[in-house]
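Memo subject: From amino acid sequence to discrete backbone structure tokens
Action wanted: Derive the backbone structure tokens from the amino acid sequence.
How to read it: Take the token row as a discrete description of the fold.
Attached in line: The record itself begins immediately under this heading.
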Amino acid sequence: MRSLVVAVVLASILACGRERPASGTVDTSIVFVAAPASSQDSLPARVDTTVQLGTVTRDMTGDGVPEILSLIGRGPTIDSMEVTFSIKSAGVTLYDTRWQITRIVGFDAGRRQLSAAEHRARLNELGPWFFDNRKFMSPSSFVADLQKSARLHVDLIPSVIAREEGSGDSVRARTIWEQMQASPIIIFEFSTGGDGITAMGWSPSDRRFYRLLECC
């Protein structure tokens, strides 16, 4: 059976006056790609739709070569998808995380289902919001911002690194954080929904990304 690929660009980037990253380019148009489902023998779950929610290029590691940050949704329909946020360099995935997005929003008494139009508008806004220029910071700017919004979390950064690293070695984690602060990396702060916020940055010594903040 011939493959069917349909690509539809929904809308242009919202908020035209918003400052864009100084380095690289931003593409936050939404592209829907419909493809035939694979057989049940080859895939445990049916995936018919891929949604490119946004892409941005930034030198996250401070080596002068921009990485590609992308936000992609996949699922049977746009009403229920797994969203993947990834950072890649020369085709190699340096970081990724995933979460579910559906038409259901809110909590408890405020929980409701978005209309089809509302959900599409939400998807259209997700990329520009997720990759907002203000979420990319130098280590010093990140610490200054954290001191204003959640100052108690500044001293907890090494413990977050130690937990992420897996050894629980707070001395080594503190050294990693000091090295990160002295390097030209970019720290990125994002949310997968609700009140949760995650900040992550590249460790030049360990050559990997570490979470620095899990709040609030």
Notes: The longest helix spans residues 116-130. Residues 137-215 form one domain. DSSP finds four helices and 13 strands in the chain. Residues 1-26, 28-43 have pLDDT under 50 and may be disordered.
